[in-house]
Amino acid sequence: MTSFIDYTVNGLVIGNIYALLAVGLALIFGVANLINFAHGSVYTIGAYVGWAAITFLHTPLPVTMAIVAVVCAFLGVAIERIALRPLQGKARIAPLLATIGLSFVLDQLVQLVCSPDPRAVPSDLPDWRVSVGGVSLGAMDFLIAAVGIVSAALLYGFLRFTKLGFAVRATAQDREAALQMGVNVNAVNSAVFAIASALGGLGGLLVGMYYNHIDPAMSFQATLKGVVAQVIGGVGNVPGAILGGALLGLTESYGIALFGTSYRNLFAFALLIVFLLWAPNGLFRTGSGVSAEPLVGTFVAPSRPIRLPRWAVASMAIAAFALPLVTSAPYLLQTLTNAWLAAVLALSLTLVAGTAGQISLGQAALLAIGGYASALLALDLGAPAIISVPAAALITAALGTLLVFPAFRLRGHYIAIATLAIGEIVSLVILNWEGLTGGAMGLTGIPPLSFVGRDLDSNRAIYWTCLIVVVIVALLQNRLLGSHLGRTLRAMREDEVAAQSYGVSLDRYKALAFAFGGFAAGVAGAITAHLYSYLNNQTFDSQLSLLALTMVILGGMGNVLGAIVGAVVLVGLPELFRVAAEYRILIYGIVLLLLVRFRPQGLLGTV
Amino acid sequence: MSLFQTLKLRSLAKSVFLATGLAALGAMPAFAQTAASGEPVTIGVSGPLTGQNAQYGAQWKKGFDLALDEVNAKGGVKGRPLQYVFEDSQADPRQTVAIAQKFVSDPKIVVELGDFSSTASMAASPIYQRAGLVQFGFTNSHPNFTKGGDFIWSNSVSQADEQPRLAKYAADLGFKRVAVLYLNTDWGRQSQKIFSEAAKGDGLEVVASEAYQPDEKDFRSTLVRVRDAKPDAIVLISYYADGALITRQIRTVGLTTPIVASGSIYSPKFIELAGDAANGVFTETNFFPGENRPDVQTFVTKFRAKYNEEPDDFNAVAYDTIILLANVMNQYDLDRTAIRDGLAHIKDVPSVIYGKATFDPETRRVPGARAVYLVVKNGQYTPWDGKKPSAI
To answer: Model-level pTM?
Structure first.
């Protein structure tokens, strides 16, 4: 019984921290209808600004907090002004990509300036503690709770009772209408980003002090948990974010109590899925919540896709096939092989996200399923690659569709968040199901690809194999898009209600899109497993899902050739910038931002 | 300017400086070692310079640079300067395979080092093995790493040596019931398995075993589980950053259970991050700057002089590895196969970690790392005085 109280208290303590992150994310989501992936980076910068103030200026805590809040508020304004405002009226998806690019840039800057080493952040809070049951609470626990609750209360009052608050809410409900009523929408957005970023930065500082530990890589997890907490509280709902954080903390804590530490995130993401399915508006069912308009569809920037003539595409393909005959440079062939494998992933995602309008942030999980399936078939049953790869692709198609099936009734951002969670769950199951997958030890000695008894282990053979897969998947997908299936999927993307009233069974067509996408991704994952000979839970991580989405958006949503171009560009760029050593990811992030800024509909345009 | 060029220039500048220095001295005997000159010999390094593990890549570089200073001042390898090219992989398998192809196709590269994690390193192993370029993983403790083929070698301390010693230390300290917290990676899982088996033999009972994720920050609920198992001691199988987080939280939640940590936490950073909570932590290390052995003392003195900071385990293994390879190249030859064969034959290379390093040609690993038992006192690592703890 005392343990139960202890788990509860501990859950609330960590929930506190999630709440602090969720409040800022909720505010931005509420107004800009945007998952701000750069929020975690602002949090990291806040922590480092605080560290610098304490270390070099020896500021007392209130002064440190003020400095951090001001610096991060300005940073928020700058993010909104420089990276996001120019994207207004362009594709709805562009700002999301911009925040991803920004998070790369900001995280890398922190790492370059402050070194990747973790640092200690001393706190000058008094060292008193109160015992509750078998655990104790310190001054920092109360400070974090106070900052979270007070800021949420202030924000609530501000949104509810002040003039600027009205303007913020009006902008959140209908940007165009607010603009017509004379609301300075840009000023509102600036204010929102300033407040949210100040809070995010403060969160970073307090959490850094709490753990006496900050590092430049802390931002991604922070964003992830913040997003989960705010969805549970109801997206865009500020007081809800506090409760969402608490509930998430409690669930994790009880999860640990029941099954052990390695199940923590499994519980977190399962809770998220439960909420998405049964209470998508979060703990508070206030009205309809955020408008459930599709993320792409009517929000796709009206662009005419660049149509390359057939002979141009064909000659590019022939050139790609002929390349290994001209050069045998292994590095070039390997980089392109990587690009072809990425292209298959991007093709699968562009069908699901671009054509069918189901933005997926968990696509890497399909690679993992395909990779593990083929590896296990080969290792445990001795199946040759010619059987194990297609079999793995079928398994991926079936399992992948089954896993997202419950999410079919979701719309817009919710699908993205649900697939993110499903992806995390797959990877955690792989980690914990040691008997099947080897857990963290992974699978070793996966045999190389082979064809009628001959190992395909020369660079050329591997290159051609992967290229053939790309071409087949691309041709199939092209055929599919031109058929009634493609038209039906696009109709569904544009307007689900209209499509349904014309007799389209939404579930069936979504399942079809996911199954085809799953099959393609499964092939890519299976081939990767045989090439690497080793797999573990980190081989296909969630960053890869993000990268796949970036490729798709970059190439142009739904654009088959665009997906391939996007993959080649995003695999190629970091390699091209290799000479820049530590600076290359920074340059990559900046290039990404510029591309989004000047070509938000993608290089080849949306289809 | 690329890193490659920077290094080249740096070593050029150094040889010029040394040459003039020697000329000025004049009195040096004719057989004195002269600075290396001519076409440099290149080692390819694949490791994280950006991303989540970037700090470890940065630590490697410090160890490499120090060792290269030493090697090149003593005439390099076969009279030629030794240098490395560091390619950033972010410890991402998709990038290590590309880097592997780059290295195997570059005739200047005679041996490869890294990568950091098993995920990243083992994905590239088939490429190195096929091309016949030695992949030397000096932080790869995965038991199957060197099984990738006869070109895959490692001088990483085998957990089969390390963990039984940790169990023995815990038993020597008089503990009977231990709770283990381990990093849920291939390294942590493997270590935990070996530790638990060894613990049985030493009369230790493992009363709880908790795996945590590398990016986990909050351990309060885990510690309730640990407390409820009523251990005499908590054993950490961690790196320094996460080890420090846990140690701190053990003390802030009010647990007074003694802590025994595996040697991988050994770093000045551990004490900095854990603060006062680090006091009383028992650990053992393969590398202890306070140890009175010439190899260790030379390394530590030089490291402090160059970087004005305390070296840690990662610095030491990186340093050791360059010294080892320079020895192999000097005694055998500079081509890829000769280096592979040389690794199998070379005996008793001076080493900070091993004292004297000799490979077992079957496992392609080095057995028998030494260890020093330590305890943290007043924010300093000090050798264990043999006293059993009563309570903290």
So the answer is: 0.85
CB of A459 within 8 Å of any CB in chain B?
Answer: yes
Token look-up 């994690």 returns B117
Cβ <8 Å between A441 and B215 = no
- Given a contact cutoff of 8 angstroms between Cβ atoms, the answer to whether A26 and A236 are in contact is yes
Q: Which of B86, B142, B221 sits opposite A256 (nearest CB)?
A: B221
Helices marked H in B114-185 — which ranges?
Answer: 118-131, 159-172
ipTM of the shown complex: 0.85
**Interface touch B122/A444, C-beta < 8 Å:** yes
Strands (E), B309-390: 349-351, 355-357, 372-377, 380-383
How close does chain B come to A193, measured CA to CA in Å?
26
Which residues on chain B are in Cβ contact (under 8 Å) with A364?
A: none
Chain B environment of A217 (Cβ under 8 Å): 51-52, 54, 215
Check if CATH label 1.20.1740 holds for domain A2-278: no
pLDDT for position B31: 40
Domain regions of chain A by residue span: 2-278, 332-543
Q: Across-strand partners of B381?
A: B376
A585 shares contact with chain B (CB less than 8 Å) = yes
CATH node for B159-285+372-383: 3.40.50.2300
Instruction: Please check whether residue B138 is in contact with residue B317, taking contact to mean a CB–CB distance below 8 angstroms.
Output: yes
Q: Residues of A numbered 233-292 whose beta carbons fall under 8 angstroms of chain B's beta carbons: which are they?
A: 252-253, 256-257, 260-262, 264-265
Residues of chain B in contact with residue A571, where contact means CB-CB under 8 angstroms, are 94
Break chain B into its structural domains and give their ranges: 3-157+293-357, 159-285+372-383
From chain B, pick out residues whose CB is under 8 angstroms from the CB of A129: 252, 254
Residues B263-272 have a mean pLDDT of 88
User: What pLDDT, on the 0 to 100 scale, is given for residue B87?
Assistant: 92
The domain defined by B3-157+293-357 carries CATH number 3.40.50.2300: yes
The amino acid sitting at A71 is V
* Closest to B374 measured CA to CA, from B144, B173, B91: B173
Task: Please report which confidence band the pLDDT of residue A285 belongs to, taking 50, 70 and 90 as the band edges.
Answer: low
Looking at residue A583, its amino acid is Y
Mean pLDDT of the residues in chain B: 86
Tell me whether domains B3-157+293-357 and B159-285+372-383 share a fold.
yes
